[in-house]
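Blinded run. Sample ID left blank on purpose so nobody reads anything into the name before looking at the predicted structure. Input follows.
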Amino acid sequence: MTTLLIDAGPTAPESLVTRTGGVPLAPAGTEWPCCASCEGPMQFLAQVILNNRDAGAAEGKRGILALFACQNDPGMCNDWEPFSGGNRALLFPMADLDPLPRPEGAEQTLLVLGAVRAADLAQEPDDNYELAREAWAARSERRESSVLGQLGGEPAWIQGDETPSCPSCAGTMPFVVQLEEGPDHSTAMNFGGGGCAYAFACEPCGRALLLWQC
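Blinded prediction complete.
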């Protein structure tokens, strides 16, 4: 079974849903992450609601994942690597979330995507992400570009397995979500042109990591 993330159209920039773009929701006191290389504030890419059971479960929510990557000088800050400091994946509890204040003086167009898109869940019986995406497109009579990625399951690696270890406990980090760049220019995330991002989370340690391949 593969749980696909399906483009569900525009949504409010501060909505508590799985979405790409908009404004991240975070606990009070959270600071907007900055790139370790250029020290500039990163671009917010997406937030993902984590269900309380297996991927695709309708009951309960156990947390929220916020994903960022540096776009101040694309290609120069190693935003594709999980430990370079050019991206961030932040794991938060669901309670007491507020819109994250934007850093003062930062160029706003670099901080957020040009549009906000919600993501619905759709389940396909095939465990292979690529085959599940094709099957969903054929069944729904929509383009494959409407698939924004997958929630849980097995990552569909482009360049080979890069599953990271948790920097706190050294255990293998569980895969959480895979994201496509997006269906159009206004919603597109920069994963090298046609690439995918992969996020992992060690929830007992409260740690998450992001990387991308193309």
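Unblinding after everyone has recorded impressions. The first helix runs from residue 108 to 111.
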